[in-house]
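Long-time lurker, first post.

We've been arguing in lab meeting about whether L6N33NVT would sit comfortably in this protein at all. Half the group thinks yes, half thinks no, and nobody has a model to point at. So I'm putting the question to the forum: if I give you the sequence and the SMILES, can you give me back a predicted structure of the complex? Inputs are below. Any interpretation is welcome too.
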Amino acid sequence: MPLSDPTAYSHGSAPKTAILLVNLGTPDAPTASALRRYLGEFLSDPRVVEIPKPVWWLILNGIILPIRSSKSAAKYASVWTERGSPLQSGTADLTQAVAAEMARLGHHVQVRYAMRYGNPSVASVLDEMAKQNVTRILLVPLYPQYCAATTASTLDAVTAWMRRSRRMPELRVLNHFHDEPLYIEALARKIEAHWQQQGRPDKFVMSFHGMPARTLKLGDPYHCECHKTGRLLAERLGLAAADYAVTFQSRFGKQEWLQPYTEPTLRQLAKEGVARVDVTCPGFSVDCLETLEEIAMEGKEAFLSSGGKVFNYIDCLNAETHWAQGFSRLLTSHLQGWNTTVPADPKKLAQTRERAKALGAENL
Ligand SMILES: C=CC1=C(C)c2cc3[nH]c(cc4nc(cc5[nH]c(cc1n2)c(C)c5CCC(=O)O)C(CCC(=O)O)=C4C)c(C)c3C=C
Ligand SMILES: [Fe+2]
Ligand SMILES: [Fe+2]
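Top reply:
Settle the argument with this. Predicted structure of the protein with L6N33NVT, as C-alpha cells:
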C-alpha cells in the first residue's frame, strides 16, 4: 500500500495538537441493512470476538447477521431521536463541551471525535487532521475501564492508519480513567443530585457492559477496573457493601460472561423484596442503546414485573458541565510537555477564540 502524503513538509511550522475522542460507533440508521453493515464491521474485529476467523466468519454471516440485524434495528428504532443515534449525538455533544472547555482553559487544541466502527471513521478523521498539519495527538478512547475489546481495538485502528502514513504524528493514549478522582467525583455528583430530588434507593446497581468470562482469566484488567470504579463510587457516596451491587449486562452468545448478570440480578432483588432500585451505567461515557433500551426499558420491565415497585435509571455523564470541566482537566494533565497555551499564530488564536465563543465557552 502506498504511503499517504496529505501535505508537503514545510520548515518552521509550529506543532499542532489535537485531542481525538473515540467511541464505539453506531449504525447510520435504525434499519436492518444499516445494522448489517455496522454489526458486520464490529463483530468481525478479532479483538471483539476471539474465535478462529474461518469458523466465526461462517457463524457471523450464516446465522448472526441475518437474524440479529432486524432484531437490533427494532431496538435502535425505540431509542432513535431526530438527532439520530443517541451514541452519535451524545458523543458529538461531549466533544463540543470539551472543545469549549479546553478553549476556556486557554489551550489551542483541536478536539474531534471518531467512531471505531461506522462513521466518522478513525481513518477519515486522522486523514483530515494530517491535511491540517496536526503533529501531536492525544488519543482518548471513551471507555473509563480498559478492555482489549474496546481500548486496544481503538489503538489498532489508529496504528493501522499510521502504518500507511509517511509523517506520523506524536501519539499519546489515555489508557483508562476508571479510578480518576475527577471521574468518580463527576459520577458521584450526578447520583447525589438525583438522590436529593428522590431520596436514596433500597439498592444502588452499577451495571457495566459484560465480556466473556474467559477474558478475565486471560489477563484483561476490565473486570477489576469495573469493580474498582464501583467501590470508589460507593465509598464516595457513603454506601455500605449491602447497599450496592456491581453487575454486567449485554451478554452475547451462549458462553459464560462476567457475572453477576444485570437482568437476573434485578429480578432476584425484586423477588427478595427490594422495593426500589436505582441503576446507573458508569462504564458508558454517553447514553446509547445499551443504557436507554437494555437498562432503562428492559431492565425496568424485568424489575417491575418481578415484584419491584420503583425503578430509576440515572443517565450517563454525557456532556454534563461539571464532567466536561473535570474531563478537560484530566486531559490537560495528559498534554504535559506539549505547549498548547502559547499560540503559534495570533490570527489563529483569534479564530480559536471566536470558535470557542460560538461553542458557548463563555457560559461554562
Ligand atoms: C462479542 C460481542 C461483544 C463484546 C465483546 C462487546 C464488548 C463491549 N461493548 C461495549 C460497548 C458497547 N456495545 C454496544 C453495542 C453492542 N455490543 C455488542 C456486542 C459486544 N460488545 C453488540 C452486538 C452491540 C450492538 C447492539 C446489539 O445488537 O445488541 C454499545 C452501544 C452502541 C450504540 O449504537 O448505541 C456500546 C457503547 C463495551 C464497553 C464492551 C467491552 C467492555
Ligand atoms: Fe458491546
Ligand atoms: Fe477482578
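For your lab meeting: The domain at 17-177+321-363 is CATH 3.40.50.1400 (Rossmann fold). Strands lie at 17-23, 109-115, 136-141, 170-173, 203-209, 244-249, 276-280, 310-314. Whichever side wins, do check it experimentally.
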